[in-house]
């Protein structure tokens, strides 16, 4: 029995090492300019996890392969320690330039797995206060009621490259995963709004890694956050048929890693 267990463990180690070696070879092929190819240890240290079955990696932990990183994004988005990081000391912006970060490829229907964390220093900030029906609390004069809330950043993932299909990353009490700021759509029914609001707050604390699994089929979105289904069957009106995966620049400190996609 011990021999069998040892044999199975050895086989798993061999498969894992072989797969990592293949990933290293892929990354090395993308590294130009005479740089030393990364080792298996480099990939492991940089968090270069292997994609799940049938998924492909959108980020290799080392290069901008698969991403539209134009010169005006230098000093804005950077790769450090195996993550994509948004700097908070970006240079002055140029009018007409897009400072979000998008994939070079456009996608239709897909499942996206992406890890993220907000790394800003927590502080108390007044936030709009959302009611259970997904609308703002307002006072007798019709003014939005603000409520102090602990925050440490804001970002999001735009599906097919559009803000209307944004999966929010934020510190609202309702939690991350909210779709397209639908609560601002006063023409939507309560049922429509509530489908786009997280059913539970599944966020981890400041500086901790979170994992989205986002499914987009047609104009319908499902979102899992840290293993909990927070959005099911939300509809995004007027979403284009295809577009890139876009990481939002909200000027707040955020990092992304382990970005994998499976086209449907």
Q: What descriptors fit this protein?
A:
single chain, 264 residues, alpha+beta, Jelly Rolls, eight-stranded antiparallel beta sheet, five-stranded antiparallel beta sheet, 30% strand, disordered N terminus
Description:
With 264 residues, this protein is an alpha+beta fold. The protein folds into two domains: 1-45; 47-263, Sandwich (Jelly Rolls). Helix content is 16%, strand content 30%. The protein is built from three helices and 15 strands. The chain has helices spanning 2-30, 40-45, 190-195; strands at residues 56-57, 67-68, 77-80, 83-86, 101-103, 110-118, 123-128, 146-151, 155-158, 166-169, 210-217, 220-225, 228-235, 246-247, 254-263. Strands 1, 3, 4, 6, 11, 12, 13 and 15 form an eight-stranded antiparallel sheet that branches. Strands 2-5-14-9-10 form a five-stranded antiparallel sheet, with no helix packed on it. Strands 7-8 form a two-stranded antiparallel ribbon. The chain is globular. The N and C termini lie far apart (42 Å). Residues 1-22 and 24-47 have low confidence and may be disordered.
């Amino acid at each position: 029995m011990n021999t069998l267990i040892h044999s199975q463990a050895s086989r798993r180690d061999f498969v894992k090492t072989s797969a990592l070696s293949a990933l290293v070879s892929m990354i090395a092929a993308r590294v130009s300019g005479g740089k030393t190819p990364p080792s298996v240890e480099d990939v492991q240290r940089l968090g270069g996890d292997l994609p799940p079955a049938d998924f492909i990696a959108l980020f290799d932990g080392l290069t901008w392969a698969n991403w539209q990183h134009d010169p005006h994004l230098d000093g804005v988005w950077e790769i450090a320690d195996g993550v994509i990081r948004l700097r908070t000391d970006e240079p002055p912006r140029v009018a007409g330039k897009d400072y979000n970060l998008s994939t070079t490829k456009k996608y239709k229907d897909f499942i996206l797995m992406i890890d993220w964390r907000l790394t800003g220093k927590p502080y108390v900030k007044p936030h709009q206060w959302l009611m259970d029906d997904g609308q703002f609390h307002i006072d007798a004069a019709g003014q939005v009621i603000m409520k102090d809330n602990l925050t440490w950043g804001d970002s999001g993932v735009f599906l097919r490259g559009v803000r209307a299909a944004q999966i929010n990353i934020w510190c609202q009490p309702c939690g991350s995963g909210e779709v397209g700021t639908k609560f601002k759509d006063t023409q939507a029914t309560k049922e429509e709004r509530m489908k786009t609001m997280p059913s539970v707050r599944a966020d981890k604390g400041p500086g901790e890694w979170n994992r989205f699994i986002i499914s987009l089929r047609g104009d319908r979105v499902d979102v899992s956050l840290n293993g909990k289904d927070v959005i099911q069957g939300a509809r995004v009106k007027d979403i284009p048929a295809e577009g890139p995966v876009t990481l939002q620049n909200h000027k707040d400190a955020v990092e992304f890693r382990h970005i994998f996609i499976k086209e449907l």
